[in-house]
Structures are given as C-alpha cells and as structure tokens.
C-alpha cells in the first residue's frame, strides 16, 4: 500500500497540488456556509459541536495539505488525506441530511481524484472506505436502518466503485498516452540534437531565411563566411544576387575576399516564402565538377582503350611477322622496331587505363615485409639487368603488413621504375634506389620509403603530382602515380611525397598485421 502511494506522489504532483487548492477552497466555502447557515436549512443543526469542529478541522487540514503539496508531497500524508477528507465529508453529509445535500457530490469528486492519482488497489480502497464511512455515519452511528435510505447507501457505494473502475481505466489510458508522448518527445529532442550537430559540422554553409530575408538560423560555416547574426537580414550583396536566381540555380559572388557559390532552395512545407541557402566555396564546386569530368573521362577512355586493344594486337603481330622477313634492309628493320616500341607504349597505356576501370577489390593478407622485398628486388633487377644501378633494402625481418601482394608489387614497380628512370638521367653511372621500412612512433603503421637520387621533382609539378594523365615525359602515360595512390587507398594505406637532398622519396604508410 505504501509503495502504491509513493507512485501516487510521483505520478501526480501537479494534479495533487491542484486538488489541494480545490480542497482548501471547498473547506473555506463550507466554513462560510457554516457561519451563515444559522437556520440549519443547508448544513443541519447549527448548534451542533460536531459540525463546528468538523468544518474547523476541515479548513485546518486542507491548509496543511496545501503546504505539504507545494513544498514537496509527503507520501503518507497525501495518502492519509484522502481517507480523512472523505470521512469528514461523510460526517458533514450525515449532519446536513444525507444524500440530498451537496456533500455527496463532493465525496464522489474526491473518489475520482483519488483513482486518477492512485494506481491499482489503493483507488478501490478509497471507494471502499467511502462506502463504509457512509454506512457508518448514516446508519450505524444514528442507529437508523430505513430500507429506502439503506438502499440508497448501497447504490451510492456501488456508484463509488463504478467511478473508481471507470477512472482507473481512464487513468491507465492517460498514463499510456503520456508515456508515449514523453517517449516521442525525448526521441524528437534526441533527433533534433543529432540533426543540429550534423548541421553545424557540414563542410558548407546553411542559412534559413523567411520571405523578408530575415535570418532564422545558420551554421558555423555560414557565420564565418557571411558574418551573420541572429535576426538581422542577409548581407546586401547576397540580397542583390538572390532575386535573379531561383530554384536550383547557383549564384557566384565574392564576400569578404571569399569566392562563394550560393544556391537557393524554396521550402515546400512550412511558412510560405521560407527558403534555405546552401553556401559552398567556389573552389569546392570546381573540384567536384572536375571529379565528375574525370569520372566521365575515365569511363570514356576505358571504352576507347578496350576498342583499340584488338587492332593494336593485330598491328603488333603484323610488325613482328614483317621483322622476321629475311630480305629486309637495316633501315626497314629499324622501322619495324619503331612500330614495336610504340605498340608497347600504347599497350602499356591501355593496361593502365583498364586497371583503373576494373578497380578489383584488394585481397589483403599478412606479408612478412623483409623477404617479400628481397624477392621483389630480385625480380626488378632481372627485368632491368641491362641497366647499371644499385638497389638496397633496409627492413627489419619481423615487420608484418596487411596488403594485397599484387597491388603492392604494382605500386613498387611504378615507383621504382620512375625513380630508376630519373636516377639514370641524373647519375648515369651511380644511379641508386633504396627501400627503407620502419615502424611509426605510435606503432600503428609501417612506413616504406622508396628513395632515389634522381634530382627530385620541380616545385611547380608537385601540385599535379598524383593527377591522372599528368606527365612530364613525352612517352609517359601520366597514370603511374595516380594508379599507385588509388591502389594504396584501396588497401587503407596512403602514399606521400617527400623531397630529399639528392632526389625523391615516396612514403607508403601501411597497416600493420595485428594477427601476426
């Protein structure tokens, strides 16, 4: 019972305070009637001491309950108040003449409030208590057992239980609806926090405006670029741009030395005239457009490369057959060599383009780096045995990396091939390559440096170093470094360039094999 009463206090503090005020007002009205009813027509015998003390006690009790309800409902006091109040009202109803007085309605209202606040059996206990109090005050105490009055008392008690049941059912529905509303409100607040945080962290600016171009909200990027404050309108330069650009059109303007692209989007729902501004740096828009162009160009070149491959094979085969003809002169043999050389160059370009278009998923595995690099070095030396160069390897035998071995081999062939070509140009007799592997300071990555003494890369070329089809060689494809970086990123690695005193250093940052 005490546990249920504690639920009463927790669930209905507002209603309890409202009822405390209502009860005090009723008590004051009862006292006023007691003072004015000198004839006894309303509340019965005006000389009754019981009536005097009951009305006085009712006011005092109601005043105390208001204080308790306002300062912090006490569970035991709140529970006891329902029983004491209904008992007082039952005595006053008996003195005032029974069910014909207005006290019967006041008692029923108390039963309803008690069952709204009280869960389960406590509400029915109040109804049972009222029934017993009515029987006691109307029949047992005055020793009157008139059949009609007794039937009315029984009907009144049944009405109390019926009200209790209906109120309990209503209270259950109200509590379920309130719990659902509270849950939905909490979910909406949570989603609002998520959406607001996402809005703040967007890489481009967002501004919400009304039909008068007054700023409703904005994120940090928009404030940084436009210098916005809550309330004032948009900057004049933005206002002048927007009327000429509607829907999904983009206007370009310069604000605070920043070249911006602003897109206005009308809202379909909400207040008429409200709209959003999406603000991006023009350089980002240009970069995105460039990426789309590159993607389209990549698909086009892959298609063209596939179509060229078959006739190129036929051309190369015909050149080889022609070179085997015994009566060709030396000048004619030279021409067949030129054909073969350029066919190989075109074929290499086609292979690089098709490799980019296929984008095979990496098959990563744990590689012990030192023996793998030794095997790679042997293959690389055998393929370039006609050239004079040195290839050194510095690697701890315990280092393990997670990488697709075919991808790693292709990356190193591209980087070492480029490095060797430039090293032979810069130092024909002392060309050198060096592969150095070490663990980063945090122990999470292994860095593999591919170092050459080829004189380095010109500063003006660094910005375009990893761009596709960018090359400084007349016979280069411009895809080697781009393909190497794409393969690195596919294996959760990164490829960086660092200049050295005598040449270049490409650093491949790879994941360690944590299962080794």
From TrEMBL:
Cross-referenced PROSITE patterns, in alphabetical order?
HIS_KIN
Record-level GO BP terms: osmosensory signaling via phosphorelay pathway
Transmembrane intervals? 16-36, 48-72, 78-99, 106-130, 150-171
Keywords of the record, alphabetical order, are:
ATP-binding, Kinase, Membrane, Nucleotide-binding, Phosphoprotein, Transferase, Transmembrane, Transmembrane helix, Two-component regulatory system
InterPro entries in alphabetical order: BphY/WalK/GraS-like, HATPase_C_sf, HATPase_dom, His_kinase_dom, HisK_dim/P_dom, HisK_dim/P_sf, Sig_transdc_His_kin-like_C
Q: Establish whether keyword Kinase is in the entry.
A: yes
Report the PANTHER family cross-referenced here.
Answer: SENSOR HISTIDINE KINASE GLRK, TWO-COMPONENT HISTIDINE KINASE
Q: What is this protein called?
A: histidine kinase
Query: Which organism is this protein's natural source?
Result: Parathalassolituus penaei
